[in-house]
UniProtKB/TrEMBL annotation:
This is 4-hydroxy-4-methyl-2-oxoglutarate aldolase. Keywords: Lyase, Magnesium, Metal-binding. Belongs to the class II aldolase/RraA-like family. The lineage of its organism: Bacteria, Bacillati, Actinomycetota, Actinomycetes, Pseudonocardiales. It catalyses: oxaloacetate + H(+) = pyruvate + CO2; 4-hydroxy-4-methyl-2-oxoglutarate = 2 pyruvate.
Length: 160
């Protein structure tokens, strides 16, 4: 989705219909604001499913990755995030770490994560795709509409 928005204005407009994530993320990609329908991955220190999914057509979706808040290994880096750009993903919200942050800053995608770690994760593909995940005091469901900017991450249920 490419329309201009402010998460603060969305909170004012939608009130309690809007879910606001309390997690304090850092910005990484060059797009400081991004939005799109949610897809999810749940994994812990293993980015096999993240890599697999981001190498498929993103069609403007935002991938929400619940890495359990671990900063021990990175769940994406320049190669995987580059694949996300090439495949049309709007953004990534990672409850975990990234690496290659200097390169990520130049990629045409929105990326929010907890921090960085140069250590690679395992790649066995353990985890789940497109199941509800929760962090920051809210649940992320596939199909929710996610909006992210410098003020935070907010969700609206899918429009009917």
């Amino acid at each position: 989705m490419t329309s201009s928005f402010s998460t603060a204005d969305l909170v004012d407009e939608h009130g309690d219909k809007l879910r606001v994530c309390d997690t304090q993320f850092r910005q990484f990609g060059s797009h400081r604001s991004f939005s799109g329908p949610v897809r999810t991955v749940s994994c812990y220190e293993d980015n096999g499913l993240v890599r697999e999914l981001l190498n498929t057509p993103g069609e403007g979706h935002v991938l929400v990755v619940d890495g359990g808040g671990s900063l021990h290994t990175a769940l994406t880096g320049d190669v995987i995030a580059g694949a996300a750009v090439d495949n049309g993903w709007a953004g990534l919200v990672i409850n975990g770490a990234v690496r290659d942050s200097a390169v990520l800053a130049g990629l045409a995608i929105g990326i929010k994560a907890l921090g960085t770690n140069p250590r690679k994760s395992t790649k066995s593909g353990v985890g789940t795709v497109d199941a509800a995940v929760g962090f920051g005091g809210i649940m992320f469901h596939p199909g929710d509409l996610l909006y992210a900017d410098d003020d935070g991450v907010v969700l609206l249920p899918p429009q009917s």
